[in-house]
Amino acid sequence: MSLADQLQAAANSGQLLAVSHDNIRALLAASDNPLYRASIEELAAAGQWAELNDRFFQALKFGTGGLRGRTIGKIVTKAERGSAPEDQRPEQPCVGTNAMNFYNVSRATRGLVTYIKNYRANAKLTGKPSVVFAHDTRHFSPEFAKFCAKIAMDHGANVYLFDGCRATPEMSFAVRQLRADAGVMLTASHNPAHDNGYKVNFNDGAGIVEPHATGIIKEVNAIKGEEYVSLPEAQRGKLTMLGNEMDQKYLARVETMMLQPELLQKEEAKKLKIVFTALHGAGGVLVPVLLKKLGFNFLTVPEQDVLDGRFPTVKSPNPENAPALKMAVDLANKEGADIVIGTDPDCDRMGVGVRDAKGEMVLLTGNQVGSLMGWYRLKTMFELGILNESNKKNAVFLKTYVTSPMQDAIAAKFDIGCVNTLTGFKWISSKLAKYEAALPNDILNRYRDLNAADSRAARLKHSKFLVFGGEESYGYMGDDFSRDKDGNGAVVMFAELAAYAASRGLTVVGLLDEVYCEIGYFLEVNQSKVFEGASGAAQIAKLADSYGSNPPKDVDGSAVINVRDFRKDEIKDEEGDIVSKEKMLFVDLADGRSFAVRPSGTEPKIKYYMFGRSIPAAGQKLSSDELNAAKVKVTEGLVNMWTWLEKDIDARLDS
């Protein structure tokens, strides 16, 4: 039986989805690449229809952040494996219209360059467009970056390409420094090793928002095949390699995020010992350089210093999760270190472990880390005179709606503004773009070249100054010179915070309890339900739609007093700006608890964010006993809420 007949028979029997059948035929018709046919033939002959459906049930969607998907299939074909051993990366990426492979990154790059050309023409900009390409350590990331660079040059764009793996925030910084039209990072952030992605930032260095998102998506989706004709050589772009010179410019700005270098002159702070792990990723390039230059006492996990897209020492390279930090914690216990810090493969996220009063290593949540760092930076800026009564009106916290309301409370305690955004740092960065645009033209024209002090002074006088930005998913920002969450900067900020605690004879956990007593006890618990593949996508959509059409009336015995449906309600932020539509529902209960639900934009899961709190009376603080009691009560309330929500999830999917 021919391949065409096999596919048709499977489609007729319902084993192969009709859309998968169409996408397979379209790919084979559009390309004569032998890898494609060989892989499809092998999977069809073996009756692996579920695998073919996962690979072909859609064209990998260029979403508002770019592409993300499997670059290694659940089943690796012989054609993809090539001569690579079973424990090594296959020679070729996963074949499929729904996979991260050369076919899809080609479409993405050609669509991006087309959009940039049109944008520049409409803006009457002269000269060639330019794009920065960077990559982390993931499978095929270096190859994808070089491949995309060539395609961009063939289509008339000048290209800046990093000479090795780098962090996402440095790519963003480079876009701003070079006045490039866009930046592309080949990464799937903290996803499992089998994934990769194509992340696009626009000319402000931030993730793409409207109108650019829709414009780029339209151009990418219009491209069906991978064949193209290069421009004549004289019209092609030029290649410039980026390396140490850009590193040094970036490092110089990151160093300024340490507010009190003199802390490390204090004996207790000097003794603070840090274990850092890059989890085989790009954090290993610059974080050790930063910690050494600033004078911190640290060591790294040698086995995890190795740049390796298999991430062989962890199940998943996500520093949010305890197993990913186990080797660092073991080393910390062996060496008597006080804190553990880990960054994800593209070094835009940071997770930490700290010792409590009993000497046990405990992991802090992204909400706890962000709240502590934001509190410390705000308190310290007032103490140093950076902020004062006359300029504090121009200081601001930026956070996402699903990030701890403790940060809103901290900002209110110091009488500065706090603005909530949708999930994703692109929304925080869009606020920074608004603040930058409000600067006088004479400053705006040279703003990207100002040093840290002059930049801060300009914002405090004429616009809004970012004290701290963060999101619950372990992303943090301490300044605006990069327009993405920054693992390098986060390490500096957290190491300084830990040094401050040590200088006062406190553990970080002890310092957090001090802040809880002052501000109130806040607890956030995040859960998610994973639904993979074609059938999973349908379940996520059904579940998300059900909340919009049938929101709950009560939850775990408490009445619902407010529902904010970000899909259809007109919602304004604290500055009066209308919030873009988002598939997110926020539910507030009469007893003070609340939860939000939203499908993930990057992973096959739907996320639940639960919030609880216990706040002292006005002008009062929580005592130690009151704090301990609050921890028990609030924790119990969120455990019960999740038990109720899980039953409700099952009922919604069964309906």
What structural keywords apply?
six-stranded antiparallel β-sheet; alpha/beta; 23 helices; 42% helix; six-stranded mixed β-sheet
Describe the model.
By secondary structure, the protein is of the alpha/beta class. 42% of the residues lie in helices and 18% in strands. It contains 23 helices and 21 strands. The chain has a six-stranded mixed sheet, sandwiched between helices. Helix 2 crosses helix 4 and helix 6 packs across helix 7. The model has no long low-confidence stretch (mean pLDDT 95).
Task: Break the fold down into its secondary structure elements and pairings.
Blueprint: H1 3-13, H2 18-30, H3 34-45, H4 49-56, E1 66-70, H5 78-81, H6 102-122, E2 130-135, H7 141-154, E3 158-162, H8 168-178, E4 182-186, E5 195-202, H9 212-221, E6 239-242, H10 244-255, H11 267-271, E7 273-277, H12 283-294, E8 297-300, H13 302-305, H14 326-335, E9 339-343, E10 350-355, E11 361-363, H15 366-383, E12 395-400, H16 406-413, E13 417-421, H17 425-437, H18 441-444, H19 452-462, E14 465-471, E15 475-477, H20 487-503, H21 508-519, E16 521-530, H22 533-549, E17 554-555, E18 558-565, E19 585-589, E20 594-599, E21 605-614, H23 624-654
Parallel strand pairs: 2-3, 2-4, 3-6, 7-8, 7-9, 12-13, 12-14
Antiparallel strand pairs: 1-5, 4-5, 9-10, 10-11, 14-15, 16-21, 17-18, 18-19, 19-20, 20-21
Helix pairs in contact: 2-4, 6-7, 6-9, 12-20, 15-16
